């Protein structure tokens, strides 16, 4: 029995995602042992309503093996769907006051669902769906599909519905809509390695391309996700959308609005449709007549349908427009003429005033420069702002632009081909980042068009749904935690409530790692121009070995996937593979391939026999990607997705098998050690010496450090580790090494602080010195001895364990080895400003949480005196053992200013010093922007003075609203280069 069995997460979703008006509750039986409902749709209803009715009937059949009759004939129990003004049954119910449509009529894509007793003499009970327009009615029918448990990804991700013996819904009268964003959809792009070969060779071989059959399935998905707009695939690998006459008719049948990208003016595909032999050069300054004829032909062809016409012009192949004059004024004037001519064409061919025809102007790349230099854009054209291709919106509407009649929209990427590096394979865009950018866009009135560049659709399923759910109704997405709530609902719907939290946690870890470095960026190479793989910026020497930490983090994800897989029902195994397993295993394996390769080269330079082991692990990771991709294309879902997944789009170096290096060593087996913070191996010693020492252990931060025990040569080595003090702890005290699978063992050394002799009880800390030179009264020394058959190696161990009266019950941060590391959300104190405050966004940043200055509408403050008095401030108490000049490094999320006149700034100071403003804004495609996007981090620094050892306070003020602070490093001269800041040094 399905009745009243919505799980709690589903109920939350219904409450969140339905713009609901409460009324009476009613049970409605769709199928039971005794009865079966019909679906009542009038013949004159638009085609999309009939399509949606059939989809619903098919969905019911997939659950219960009962086929609902879809016709105009009455049944005693009926699902009655109609569009206001199109359905006589709906109009009759309104006239008899059995339903009210005041909250639906005349609105955009708004529908109502309710149960009515005896709506007609022949019908005992009806589940009535009334839509304000054709799409609304279709959405309403597919809302019933959701209610009975059919995922929008039923076909595209093989989320096979659960079988049931009857279908009974408890319906609460609800009105859904109007949507938050008027036009909502996706851009099929970079389809060369997935969607196009799959369509051409597997799904639609009769067409040999992405044709109407493929688009029908895409359009069905859009309807299920309550979307309404498509930007069709447009690469040269694919024939132009309008080259297949049926495509535009199928789009209209499904009520999908057709638009085109920034490079495709007037619904034209320049890549595929411009013929240089017959049409000449694609230059408006010299060949405008032919270009206008081209635009005119397309406008006439598309006039009967719903479209959004992109106005303006760029060059071929997503390049700048060619103009004769190289100065900005000439470029701007020519582009203005293009738009004027395009609007004249639209007026003539469509027969409407231009302000009645949807138009989009997309200031992408150099076009944004033209707009900023004064290009005059008709007030009724949509301003469609873009991100920088890596998830950060370059500009939004200023207060004046927010009043434009044409409104504004957003073109956003979760897939991209281009500089500094593509990310076309996996979905690696952090959903909380997307939430942050899109809620910001919505707040600044970009509410007319949202388009997501999702590449080949797969594997972008979750982010597509999140993007479109936000576009449908922004109300429930008021906090960063809303993303986790949404993902828990999504995971519960697809894989069961019992698995929802585990899958959500898994994905938040997955996106956290990808935020630090996307999988496709792990070769440290670039494109345009393409470069070979380069050494990693991750340190293998300091801070616990960043390479090994990342290896372990991805291994943990892989282990979690394998465990979760056993709990997934049989009918969802394919879906789990597509939505969870393949992307996680793929990301982990690509990381492992490169990380183990970096490990191989590092240890080979030290002559370690383990070089062969790491080379083998790297090769195995590459083979795993091959194996999984082979299964995706050939074994999954009976071969349904053959050719959809490429493990190497554009065949870039990052996808190649990584090279390996062999260690050169003698025959004799030898025990060797490598210590954290040392680039070289420990020198061979037989005498007792403390010359080789681990970094100082700090009682205030409870460090641990690694020692790699390894061998050179051939044969085996038995070893023992003997602490010379009872307060030294080691993770393993003996072992055997060989030159096969076990040539290296990593040990962790820590301190039992309850047993360490404590230093002198003094009020103040020692004045600043290198930790190795700390006076003996504050430091306790001992050693670890490593012994093999003919080798003794002694490693010094020093514990900094003083007793300072002014650090008793101290709760702040503390210096460790010459630096203080801080996660921005862990402030000691926070003070609100006159009109703003610091808040926390969860699920983003290197720290997993960031501090953001809100509201975004607050005024910027650049006056240093007023910053101190007016701006919100975060304060961080820290204790230093050194003094002198400090370099305060602040890491922010690399967002862009909202619009001209705003910035991305904060201000910092230690103690009572004057604030120093840090500006994270980048411009264009500069080298700084390039590095920020690769790393998802912007770092700026300020010189400050720490005037004495002891307690201090770092202050961080808002200068511009919206700036997101991730981490802070106070470098007193001890920080060693690393990719990320070291772990927090908090008491």
UniProtKB/TrEMBL annotation:
SUPFAM superfamilies: beta-N-acetylhexosaminidase-like domain. It comes from the Bacteria. The keyword Signal applies. Keywords: Hydrolase, Signal. Residues 812-984 form the Gylcosyl hydrolase 115 C-terminal domain. Residues 1-23 form the signal peptide. This is Gylcosyl hydrolase 115 C-terminal domain-containing protein. It comes from Flavobacterium palustre.
């Amino acid at each position: 029995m399905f009745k009243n069995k919505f799980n709690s997460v589903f109920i939350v979703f219904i409450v969140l995602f339905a713009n609901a008006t409460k009324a009476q509750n009613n049970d409605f039986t769709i199928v039971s042992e005794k009865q079966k409902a019909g679906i009542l749709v009038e013949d004159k209803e638009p085609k999309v309503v009939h399509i949606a009715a059939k989809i619903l009937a098919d969905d019911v059949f997939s659950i219960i093996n009962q086929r609902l009759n879809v016709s105009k004939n009455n049944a005693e129990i009926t699902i009655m769907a109609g569009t206001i003004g199109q359905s006589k049954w709906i109009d009759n119910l309104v006239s008899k006051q059995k339903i009210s449509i005041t909250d639906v009529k005349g609105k955009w894509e708004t529908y109502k669902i309710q149960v009515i007793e005896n709506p007609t003499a022949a019908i005992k009970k009806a589940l009535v769906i009334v839509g304000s327009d054709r799409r609304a009615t279709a959405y309403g029918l597919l809302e019933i599909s959701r209610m009975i448990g059919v995922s929008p990804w039923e076909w595209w991700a093989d989320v096979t519905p659960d079988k049931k013996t009857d279908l009974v819904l408890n319906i609460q009268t609800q009105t859904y809509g109007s949507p938050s964003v008027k036009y909502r959809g996706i851009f099929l792009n970079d389809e060369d390695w997935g969607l196009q070969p799959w369509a051409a060779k597997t799904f639609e071989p009769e067409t040999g391309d992405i044709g109407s059959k493929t688009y029908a399935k895409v359009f069905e998905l859009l309807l299920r996700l309550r979307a309404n707009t498509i930007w069709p695939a447009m690469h040269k690998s694919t024939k132009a959308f309008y080259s297949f006459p049926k495509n535009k008719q199928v789009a209209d049948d499904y009520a999908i609005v057709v638009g085109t990208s920034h490079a495709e003016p007037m619904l034209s595909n320049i890549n595929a449709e411009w013929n240089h032999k017959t049409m000449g050069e694609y230059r408006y300054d010299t060949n405008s007549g032919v270009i206008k004829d081209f635009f005119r032909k397309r406008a006439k062809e598309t006039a009967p349908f719903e479209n959004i016409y992109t106005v303006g012009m760029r060059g071929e192949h997503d390049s700048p427009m060619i103009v004769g004059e190289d100065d900005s004024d000439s470029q701007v004037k020519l582009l203005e003429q293009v738009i004027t001519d395009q609007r004249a064409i639209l007026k003539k061919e469509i027969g409407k005033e231009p302000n009645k025809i949807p138009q989009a102007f997309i200031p992408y790349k150099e076009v944004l420069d033209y707009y900023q230099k004064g290009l005059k854009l008709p007030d009724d054209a949509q301003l469609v702002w873009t991100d920088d291709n890596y998830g950060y919106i370059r500009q939004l509407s200023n207060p004046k632009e927010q009043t434009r009649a044409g409104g504004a929209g957003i073109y956003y990427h979760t897939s991209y081909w281009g500089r500094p590096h593509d990310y076309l394979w996996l979905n690696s865009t952090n959903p909380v980042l997307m939430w942050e950018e899109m809620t910001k866009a919505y707040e600044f009135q970009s509410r007319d068009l949202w388009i997501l560049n999702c590449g080949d659709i797969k594997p972008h399923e979750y982010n597509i749904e999140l993007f479109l759910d936000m576009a449908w109704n922004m109300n429930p997405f008021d906090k960063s935690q809303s993303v986790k709530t949404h993902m828990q609902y999504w995971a519960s719907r697809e894989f069961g409530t019992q698995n929802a939290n585990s899958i959500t946690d898994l994905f938040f870890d997955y996106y956290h790692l990808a935020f630090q470095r996307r999988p496709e960026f792990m070769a440290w190479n670039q494109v345009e121009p393409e470069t070979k793989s380069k050494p990693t910026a991750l340190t293998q020497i300091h801070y616990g070995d960043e390479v090994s930490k990342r290896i372990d983090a991805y291994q943990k994800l892989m282990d979690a996937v394998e465990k979760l897989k056993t709990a997934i029902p049989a009918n969802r195994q394919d879906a789990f593979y597509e939505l969870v397993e393949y992307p996680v295993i793929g990301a982990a394996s690509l990381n492992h391939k490169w990380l183990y390769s970096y490990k191989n080269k590092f240890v080979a330079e030290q002559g370690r026999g383990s070089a062969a082991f790491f080379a083998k692990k790297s090769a195995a990771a590459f083979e795993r990607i091959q194996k999984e991709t082979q299964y995706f294309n050939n074994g999954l879902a009976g071969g349904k997705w053959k050719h959809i997944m490429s493990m190497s789009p554009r065949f870039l170096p990052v996808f190649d098998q990584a090279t390996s290096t062999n260690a050169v060593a003698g025959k004799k087996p030898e025990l060797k050690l490598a210590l954290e913070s040392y680039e070289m191996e420990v020198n061979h010693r037989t005498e007792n010496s403390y010359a080789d020492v681990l970094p100082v252990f700090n009682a205030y931060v409870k460090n641990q450090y690694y020692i790699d025990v390894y061998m050179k040569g051939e044969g085996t080595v038995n070893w023992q580790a003997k602490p010379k003090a009872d307060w030294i702890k080691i993770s393993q005290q003996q072992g055997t090494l060989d030159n096969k699978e076990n040539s290296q063992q990593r040990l962790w050394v820590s301190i039992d602080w309850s047993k360490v002799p404590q230093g002198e009880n003094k009020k103040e800390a020692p004045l600043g010195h290198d930790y190795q030179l700390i006076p003996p009264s504050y430091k306790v020394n001992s050693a670890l001895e490593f012994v093999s058959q003919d080798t003794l190696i002694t490693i010094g161990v020093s514990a900094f364990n003083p007793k300072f009266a002014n650090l008793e019950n101290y709760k702040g941060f503390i210096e460790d080895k010459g630096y203080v590391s801080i996660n921005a959300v862990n402030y000691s104190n926070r003070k609100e400003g006159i009109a703003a405050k610091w808040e926390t966004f969860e699920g983003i940043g290197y720290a997993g949480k960031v501090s953001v200055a809100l509201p975004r509408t607050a005024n910027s403050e650049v006056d240093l005196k007023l910053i101190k008095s007016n701006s919100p401030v975060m304060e961080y108490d820290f204790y230093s053992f050194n003094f002198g000049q400090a370099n305060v490094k602040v890491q922010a999320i690399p967002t862009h200013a909202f619009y001209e006149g705003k910035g991305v700034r904060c201000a910092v100071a230690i103690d009572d010093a004057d604030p120093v403003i840090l500006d994270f804004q980048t411009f264009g495609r500069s080298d700084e922007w390039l590095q920020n996007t690769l790393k998802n981090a912007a770092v700026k620094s300020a010189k400050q003075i720490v005037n004495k050892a002891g307690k201090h306070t770092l202050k961080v003020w808002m200068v511009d609203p919206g700036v997101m602070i991730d981490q802070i490093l106070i470098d007193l001269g001890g920080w060693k280069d690393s990719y990320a800041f070291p772990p927090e040094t908090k008491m």
